[in-house]
Design goal:
By secondary structure, the chain is mainly alpha-helical. The chain is 72% helix and 4% strand. The chain is built from 10 helices and 2 strands. Strands 1-2 form a two-stranded antiparallel sheet. A hairpin with a 5-residue loop joins strand 1 and strand 2.
């Protein structure tokens, strides 16, 4: 599920934008980019319609639940769903929510924010790489703990900066997660 979700998220992040139709309603349009340039007009219209109407929000939660369970039965993600049923419930809520999934999809179209986040990620990587080159005196346990603390520190900074930079896009999803955990 994580892979499928990431793949859908990546595709729609690359091609999601907002426009205004003749009635003044906000609609989603596909950006012109390397991915959408290869789509024919029929596929482009279907994707725009799907993002405008958000058909997944119209499905019953039980339908989404059973589809996800059936689709990933026997796969590693299916095992995660079996061991952590709350994870499946969270995924169903995110997919069913009218704001969460479109907000997540809109992240890549935030090009200014993407540049800021990329700068933070690269700076964090470089900083922690050079800190990791420091030779730590002491036993192997001390060196392992030093490297682990660097890894967790970098992970924390990246997650926190992602949440801060994309707060508007991530807040509906985070609210759903808060309901379950």
């Amino acid at each position: 599920m994580k892979f499928l979700f990431a793949l859908v998220l990546l595709f729609f992040n690359l091609c999601y934008a907002q426009g205004v139709d003749q009635r003044g309603e906000t609609i989603q349009k596909l950006n012109e980019n390397f991915l959408t340039n290869h789509l024919n007009e029929e596929v482009r219209e279907k994707i725009e319609k799907m993002m405008h109407e958000n058909p997944l929000a119209k499905l019953e939660k039980e339908e989404i639940y059973s589809f996800l369970k059936y689709r990933f039965d026997g796969s590693p993600i299916g095992k995660i769903f079996q061991e952590n049923p709350k994870f499946l419930d969270v995924m169903v809520e995110i997919i069913h929510d009218k704001k969460a999934l479109p907000a997540l999809v809109s992240i890549v179209n935030q090009s200014g924010k993407m540049k800021v986040y990329l700068t933070i990620v690269l700076s964090t990587f470089c900083l922690f790489f050079f800190i990791g080159l420091i030779h730590v005196e002491g036993g192997i346990l001390k060196r392992i703990l030093f490297k682990l603390s660097l890894s967790f520190g970098g992970l924390f900074i990246n997650i926190a900066s992602c949440y801060y930079v994309f707060y508007d896009q991530l807040s509906p999803t985070v609210e759903i997660i808060k309901k379950f955990y």
